[in-house]
Amino acid sequence: MTTSTAPLLTPQATVALRDALLRHGYTRDGIVTRIGLEAAHALNRYDPGPALRLLGEDDPLGVLIRLFMCGRGVPLVQVEEALVPLLEPAGEGQVRAAVYLHPYEKWWAVSDFPLFLRPEAHDRRADRVLPIGPTATLLRRALLTHRVGTALDLGTGCGVQALHLSDQAASVVATDLSHRAARFAATTAALNGLDWEVLEGDMTQPVAGRRFDLVVSNPPYAVGPGTVHCVYRDSGRPGDTIGAELAAAAPDLLTEGGHLQFRANWAHVAGEDWRERVAHWLPAGGGLDAWIVQRGVTDARAYVDHWLEQSGGEEHLGQREAWLRWFEDRKITGVGTGTVVLRRTDRHDPVVRIEELSPEAAELTGAQVADWFTRQDWLRDHDPLTSRFRPGVGVRLWQEASLRPEPDAAARGWQLKQQLLKTPADGLNWNDRTTPLAVALLGASGREDETLGDHLTRLAEAEGTDRSRLVLAALPEVARLVERGALVPEGLAGRVGEAPA
């Protein structure tokens, strides 16, 4: 049986450290009270200047902020004993923090310092444990929040996703390939009084044969040659196959109805549709509903430069050329970034949707993810023809038309070019071309005395068309409108935002 990884501190040292942090107000609110909101925001941007100008020389909270948030040295005589296990010598009677101890929401997270604060070469180690960054925050924002029995944070790093899972799961398992990351995550758990099972190993290997209700992962997903320079960035798999590996593991990793959510990158290859590429990640016959959304695409050169800057920049100049040649050889022009959400249903007709969010869309939230699956369940379980609908809140129709260039003035008139349906859907801001039939269906929605079937009967009679043919044309339109939140089925409105079944 695999043994849970031990934290950096003994239980006694952990309790002493926690007591010291609480006693001196080393919390998010305590720091804001001590230095003000503006300086606290600067600290979160890894700018210690404003905070350092406001801190005293030897007050206990100031010492904690200097050590663990600013990365500065302080005289050893100013440090109380409970902090010593997390310190290292800094010369001339001073000590500095060996870890970045970050007050995060209602918790503390233990990681390495960001390179902005510790740019020295020895701080750019290959097994660096990153502090909580933008990608982790985006994944957390998209996390489903319903109560579950078992949850897994795969590739936990400092443990940020596991912290959030602790609020909704009866038991939490956190895994990481890096022994150092596993120890940091175990320390994060212990310091916050949380009981996680922290396991070491590559991808799903540490939990082989086990199933979970909710799995979340921010894996080392950088698209590249497959060489490992930074453990948090490079999976050792070439290209974007880490995403395919995670998706393929979902049927055996999830309980029935369980969800897997992960951040991913995928290659954009010249002459190929990126959607088809990502669709091949899903195992045939796996019984997985899938919603995969792309949030943006980065040019190949900008993508490589971004990752190298994150990991230290100048040390990897040779790596940059090798990486770009690898892209060029495979005709990779850019890399897409987004979120993958899979649900195990064991159905023979899974719903798979792979699409791109518009530039106007807000970042994906857990409530939006829950709503999307709720709408899919409704479409599976109900007959639209016997249902009543109302229009979604804020739905708007935009029409583009031009005047016909007819020489005869009498023949001139407006020629409709396209119709765009704009659907807020609580921040997703869908912007889709639509059809006259969809426009008619939306326009007639909201009548309490009329089902969709009734409306189609009335429409067929008015148009002199065959009703059965109209129904066949209308049902896909209705499904699309419901999925987007443009049409809301009667009785569904109160369930939006709840946990998916």
Automatic annotation (TrEMBL):
One of its GO terms (biological process) is methylation. Residues 24-86 form the DUF7059 domain. Residues 370-489 form the DUF7782 domain. CDD domains: AdoMet_MTases. Pfam families: DUF7059, DUF7782, MTS. One of its GO terms (molecular function) is S-adenosylmethionine-dependent methyltransferase activity. Keywords: Methyltransferase, S-adenosyl-L-methionine, Transferase. GO terms for cellular component: eRF1 methyltransferase complex. The keyword Methyltransferase applies. Residues 136-265 form the Methyltransferase small domain. The keyword Hydrolase does not apply. InterPro entries: DNA_methylase_N6_adenine_CS (IPR002052), DUF7059 (IPR055487), DUF7782 (IPR056684), Euk-Arch_PrmC-MTase (IPR052190), SAM-dependent_MTases_sf (IPR029063), Small_mtfrase_dom (IPR007848). Belongs to the eukaryotic/archaeal PrmC-related family. This is Methyltransferase small domain-containing protein. The lineage of its organism: Bacteria, Bacillati, Actinomycetota, Actinomycetes, Kitasatosporales.
